[in-house]
Every structure is written in C-alpha cells, then in structure tokens.
C-alpha cells in the first residue's frame, strides 16, 4: 500500500496567519479569580480588636464617675489627672490602680485636633492594662 503523501506546510500560511501568543492569559485570569474566591471565603470580617464602648441607656445613668481616672489625650501628649505621662507609664499607673480597685472607671477624653488613631491607641493600651470600665468623653461636651 503506497504511503499517502501529505502536503508540506506552506510558508505563506505561516507568514500571513496570526501568531498565537506564547502565554495565554485565560488560565492566568482563572487562577486570579480562584485565588480571589479563596481569600474571600477564607477571610473573617469580624472586628477582632474592637473595643467595647457601651453607651449609657440614658444621660446620667450608669456607674458613678466619682474617683474615676481622667486621661486627657492632647496633641502634645497624655495627661493623667493633669500630670503629663507617656503611654507606657500611664498604662502602668492604671494597671497599679486597677490592682487595688478592680472596678475603677477610666475616662479617656481626647482633645480637639487629636487623631482618632492616637485615641484608639490609648484605649487599646488601657484595655490591655486591664481597664474594663472605659468611657470615652469628648472634650468640650457638645
């Protein structure tokens, strides 16, 4: 049986035809979407470092604030009952006071011009020091 002759590839078809890209983008896009879906399903959208600040049911209600520690957050630094301190010293003093009186209230009062991040940093550090009865009070009282 004679072998069937095949036509040699023509050079004109190779030259005039469209060249295929070396790397197809479709599998790369598929991988990106699969990774996107994976991270969306694996992510947690919980506030894992949220600080619980419960507003009082009505004005004037709640725990008495007599003897509460007042922490002023100012642009030039922190003050505990008027004394200027750094954050670690403040946390140490609050922790020492809470060791004696566990129900001690701590009022944090940020001044105008203080960034929210600085206030949150103070609240977070006080929460780590053991302050469970934290209140946030706005300076000026409006």
UniProtKB/TrEMBL annotation:
GO terms for cellular component: plasma membrane. GO terms for molecular function: transmembrane transporter activity. Its main location: membrane. InterPro entries: ExbD. It is a single-pass membrane protein; Single-pass type II membrane protein. This is Biopolymer transporter ExbD. The chain crosses the membrane at residues 28-46. Belongs to the ExbD/TolR family. GO terms for biological process: protein transport. The keyword Repressor does not apply.
């Amino acid at each position: 049986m004679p072998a069937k002759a095949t036509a040699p590839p023509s050079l004109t078809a190779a030259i005039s035809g469209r060249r295929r890209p070396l790397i197809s983008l479709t599998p790369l896009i598929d991988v990106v979407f699969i990774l996107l879906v994976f991270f969306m399903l694996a992510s947690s959208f919980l506030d894992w470092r949220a600080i619980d600040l419960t507003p009082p049911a009505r004005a004037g209600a709640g725990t008495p604030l007599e003897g509460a520690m007042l922490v002023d957050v100012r642009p030039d630094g922190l003050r505990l009952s008027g004394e200027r301190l750094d954050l670690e010293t403040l946390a140490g003093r609050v922790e020492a006071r809470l060791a004696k009186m566990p129900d001690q209230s701590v009022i944090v009062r940020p001044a105008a011009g203080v960034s929210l991040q600085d206030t949150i940093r103070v609240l977070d550090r006080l929460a780590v020091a053991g302050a469970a009865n934290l209140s946030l009070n706005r300076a000026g009282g409006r």
